[in-house]
Amino acid sequence: MLPLLFSALFTFGLDTVPPDGPYLFYEGDTVTAQWADTELRTVGKTIFDPEHFACMPHFPTFRPEMVDVGRDFQRLTKVHYEGVDKVAALSDIHGQFDAGRQLLEANGVIDENLHWSFGDGHLVIVGDIFDRGDQVTELLWLIHNLEMEAVAAGGKVHFLLGNHETLTLEGDDRYLHAKYRTTAGLTGKFYRELYGPDSYLGRWLRSLPLVVEINNTVYIHGGLSRKMVREVSSIDRINEIYHSRLIDAEDISEVKQNNRRLQMLHGAEGPLWYRGYFTRDGFDERDLEYVLRRIGANRIVVGHTSFTAIHAYYDSRLIAVDSSIKFGGVGEILLYDDGDYFRGTIHGDRIPLVATTK
Predict the structure, then answer these.
(1) How far apart are the C-alpha atoms of 101 and 328, rounded to whole Å?
(2) I need a surface site. Which of 71, 155, 250, 263 has the fewest CB within 10 A?
């Protein structure tokens, strides 16, 4: 029997919502698991033991055998990849696990048992798993598992930080679903502490990049403005500055004070919040050419700004992949297959991507 520190009894029926979690925490030499039943308002806690965790309540995507509590969560520094034949990209899932799973399964990225089936392809999550929806934890553990399975198959998962990941790490919960306020209350923690530096998922998140480049295509959540690339023209440098000066900072407001570059990185012109590509005025093809030249890329793929489908502009040199998955039951996934781009639908249809005028 597991050495329980505190536990609650859960009884599951077909209509019962699974408990939220688990959240793993490093407590000295021990790793503990906590979870919360947000319907019954009960909470459980135990020492984490992968071999026995099957005895614990059911979690849809948590696979204890995939957890390496001794993992060295160093910030990922390799963000440039070439010669990748297959790429899938989607963004702004915002806790809509069912829609995200259906898109991935229908388009051959995962199988019906939630395992990686994309071979040596690359999957890019262009930010914003957190907030708004009520299945954030399920999505995080799914992406965590796929990241490890992809490597074993010769592929790669790139989970890029979006503005909502960084909001969570900073403790800004203005968009938080009510379910997670309940979880936080039941566990006796602020929501940000569930992803703090002493948590397994928190350490994983802090190791993730903001931007990655695959086949000379840059993937980034919000985008890169002219002002931004004038200040910092290297995507490696953007990742480095954001992690070292903002994500890991104890007091972000103090760090940003009197530092114009950090204010820009964290603001509306920065890589996580920028929407200027899609405003009526203020950004045109010459601006895009300038940005691409500065960062040495051929194309940019972004999320953050919502549309009803994936859109391409400027001869497909700018692609917007936020297809409103956050509303549930809808959405698309961008597919790159040996030189051609497609819009993958939630039913598995492939529609050739055609650029339109802005």
Answers:
(1) 11
(2) 250
